[in-house]
Structure formats: structure tokens, C-alpha cells
Design a protein that fits this description.
The complex is a heterodimer. Chain A is 39% helix and 19% strand. Chain A is built from five helices and five strands; from the N terminus they run E-H-E-H-E-H-H-E-E-H. In chain A, strands 2-1-3-4-5 form a five-stranded parallel sheet, with helices on both faces. In chain A, helix 1 links the parallel strand 1 and strand 2. Chain B is an alpha+beta fold. Chain B has seven helices and nine strands, in the order ββααβαββαββααββα. In chain B, the strands form three sheets. In chain B, strands 4-6-7-9-8 form a five-stranded mixed sheet. Chain B is elongated and about 115 Å long. Classes of the chains: A alpha/beta, B alpha+beta. The interface between A and B is medium-sized, with 22 and 20 residues.
Chain lengths: 130, 273
């Protein structure tokens, strides 16, 4: 069951804040501090991740490199991904993402985006109670 | 000149009008000050982008936590945790703004003062880490004395070091091995700063060009003024800025007198004589 939201964000405070908001809304969360760590999680728990929230500017492996790297695996590429960034993406790789959220993201905007996603995309009723 | 000849006494007078030369020198100095300021402002503009980005995250944290606090009936200890996070976010913004202010300040008219070199290097590295936090290159500071003082304008020598470290970060951006080492040594009456990075050195055909005004290898992002201005600054102190051609890595060396008053005065006198 794809019940997890994977938050990929290098800013510790922001990552924990997103986690707090979405956990409070009933979602199950996995977190990674860069694209490389996110790929590692996908390789082990990929079949349980229903949505990725992806920061762009990160050390080790940034968001665009993550999307590029992930596209090498058909299974991993299918996990819907929302890019969360201050500037609207101009990189062509951003077309591989499902959507875009502009920072700063409001609490309700974040909850609604994730809720909407799970209702639309989750095949087995895994949308968490909010 | 006065001399006696068979016809009597001869007096030869010679006069040279140096006003035009003095005026030209004044104009050169004014142009130098202006280009130094332009270079500082260009660097500041680049930094402002990084700062705007870095402030955005703590602002987002504060905004989100404020919303959570307002809407939730959470226990007091959980509220305290959120408030601690908000405090941290405010501190981050404060330190970013403070670092930017210290660099943005125009200090070229400050009097030279005794500056603690270790503190100066630490401030520059802190500033680099603040404005380039996503850059995960290691910045290493070599052993240096707490007591080494150099007589200078802090903002000027700080700008020289900042230029060298930011250049190094740009130069090794795509390298596998990414580190920068800053070292300071006392060499006789001079203080020697060196900035070494993990790159493989400056190509021989570029060594002579990189210090020239407006020469840059940074397509679209460089002003080509950083190194030329830095060299002009240290030369005004009677010092030097050079590439260490004997180093296997890319190594820039700045040498300035620990006490510049005598040499600077002499240099000033040479310029205005």
C-alpha cells in the first residue's frame, strides 16, 4: 500500500515542520535530507511511497539530479512528485514532476495538496483520515 | 643653477608644472575607488539572491508554526517546542542579516586599525557559509595564532579573502573532491594569507590574465573585477597577491605588512610627490 509521503528537504527545521503538519493531518511520513538519501529510501520502500515532496536546492544531490537519476528506474519514476521551491522551475527536467508548490507554502495549502493527491491517485483507499 | 663665467654670473631657473600630473593621479585614484565599490556591489548583488533564498525557509517555518499554534489545542510542552523552533528561525534570519550588513557596509573611508587575523578569517568563513549554505565543499582553517594582528581596514582585507574563497568555491563546483583551506602565517614583518582549493591549478595560459580587470572564466556570472580589485587593494598596503605556481593545487597567496603605516605613507608620498 502506497501510504507514505516522502519529504525531501535539506533544511532540518522546515523538514520537521512539514512532517509535523502532515502527521497532524493523519499522513504517514518518511523523510530524506537530500536526493541521494531519497533514492535510498525509494529503493527499499519505493512500493510504499504514494507521494514525494521534493526540494530543489540541496547538497549531495539536488532535486533535478534526483529526478534525472530516478528516471533510470521505471518503477521509481512512477511515484508522483511535487516540486516545492521558492522559484517556479525553468529546468526542463521539472516536466517529470507531477506538480509544483511555491515556498512559502501555507499549512492548509500543504494539507489540501496532499489530501487531493491521495484522493485522486491512491488506488486502495489509502487516503489518511484528516 | 648658479655659476660664474668669464662674462659674469649666470643663473638658470627651471620649473615643472606638476598640477596636470597631480590631477591625473587624483582621477586615477577616484576611478580605482569607484571600481572597487562596483566590485563590492556586484558581489553584494550575487549574495542578495542567496540571502533571499536562505531567509525564505525560516520565514516559512515561522509562518507554518504560527498557524499550527493558532489552530491547535496542543499541550503546553508541545507549544514550547514549536516556540523554540520559531526562536531558532528568528535567530537564523538575524544572523544572515547581520552577516550581510557587515559586508554591505562601505568601510573604505575607515581608518586602518589593528585587526585580529583569526577573527577576520572566521568572520569571512561564517559569511561564506551563511550565503552559500548549499555549497557542501569543506572549508578548512589552518592553525593560526590568536594574537596575530594586522593593521588594515577590516572591510578591505575581508573583501579580498571573501573574493578568494568565493572564487575557489566556484572553481571546484563540479569537482569530485571539494575542499578549501585557508592558512595564515607570519613571514618576517608580513602576514601571509593563503587560500588553496582542491582544483588542479590555474592553466599556464591564464595565469597572467586572471588578474586583469574584466577577465573572467565564469560565463555569465563573473564581473572579472574580483581578482584585479583584490590585487589593487593589497598593493595599496604595500603587499602582493599572487598565484603559487609551485603548488599542485590552486593556491592564491596574499602578503601584506603587519604594520602598514610606514609603507602606506611612503606609497602615498610617492603618488602625490
Amino acid at each position: 500500500m502506497r501510504k507514505f509521503v516522502l519529504i525531501v528537504e535539506d533544511d532540518d527545521d522546515l523538514r520537521e515542520t512539514f512532517e509535523m503538519i502532515l502527521e497532524g493531518a493523519g499522513f504517514s511520513i518518511l523523510t530524506a535530507a537530500d536526493g541521494r538519501a531519497a533514492l535510498d529510501i525509494l529503493h527499499t520502500h519505493g512500493d510504499q511511497v504514494g507521494l514525494i515532496l521534493l526540494d530543489v536546492l540541496m547538497p549531495v544531490m539536488n532535486g533535478w539530479q534526483f529526478l534525472e537519476e530516478r528516471s533510470k528506474s521505471k518503477a521509481l519514476e512512477e511515484v508522483p512528485t511535487i516540486v516545492v521551491s521558492a522559484a517556479h522551475p525553468t529546468n526542463p527536467i521539472s516536466e517529470r514532476a507531477t506538480g509544483f508548490l511555491s515556498k512559502p507554502v501555507g499549512v492548509e495549502e500543504l494539507r489540501q495538496t496532499v489530501r487531493r493527491h491521495f484522493k485522486l491517485d491512491s488506488p486502495v483507499g489509502s487516503a489518511p483520515a484528516s | 643653477l648658479r655659476r660664474m663665467t668669464g662674462d659674469g654670473e649666470q643663473i638658470i631657473l627651471s620649473a615643472l608644472d606638476v598640477e596636470a600630473q597631480k590631477e591625473a593621479e587624483r582621477q586615477v585614484q577616484a576611478a580605482f575607488a569607484q571600481s572597487q565599490e562596483n566590485s563590492r556591489l556586484a558581489a553584494l548583488g550575487t549574495m542578495a539572491l542567496g540571502v533571499a533564498h536562505e531567509i525564505n525557509n525560516p520565514l516559512q517555518v515561522m509562518r507554518n508554526l504560527g498557524t499550527l499554534l493558532r489552530e491547535s489545542a496542543m499541550p503546553v510542552n508541545s507549544q514550547a517546542r514549536l516556540l523554540d523552533k520559531m526562536d531558532r528561525a528568528v535567530s537564523r534570519i538575524t544572523s544572515i542579516v547581520a552577516a550581510l550588513r557587515s559586508f554591505a557596509r562601505d568601510g573604505h573611508a575607515d581608518p586602518a586599525a589593528l585587526v585580529n587575523v583569526k577573527e577576520l578569517v572566521t568572520e569571512v568563513v561564517d559569511l561564506v557559509r551563511t550565503v552559500r549554505p548549499k555549497d557542501d565543499a569543506q572549508i578548512l582553517i589552518g592553525e593560526m595564532s590568536d594574537q596575530l594582528l594586522v593593521e588594515c581596514r577590516e572591510t578591505e582585507i575581508g573583501q579580498v579573502l571573501l573574493n578568494l574563497v568565493l572564487n575557489a568555491l566556484d572553481a571546484i563546483r563540479d569537482s569530485n573532491e571539494r575542499w578549501i583551506r585557508i592558512e595564515v602565517a607570519e613571514v618576517g614583518e608580513d602576514a601571509e594569507f593563503s587560500v588553496t582549493d582542491s582544483g588542479t591549478g590555474i592553466p599556464p595560459d591564464l595565469v597572467d590574465k586572471i588578474m586583469l580587470p574584466f577577465f573572467t572564466t565564469k560565463t555569465g556570472t563573473g564581473t572579472g573585477l574580483g581578482l584585479s580589485i583584490s590585487r589593487s587593494i593589497v598593493e595599496r598596503y604595500g603587499g602582493s597577491l599572487a598565484v603559487d605556481l609551485t603548488s599542485a593545487q590552486t593556491r592564491f597567496v596574499v602578503r601584506i605588512p603587519k604594520r602598514v603605516a610606514a609603507s602606506a605613507t611612503a606609497s602615498e608620498q610617492r603618488r602625490t610627490a
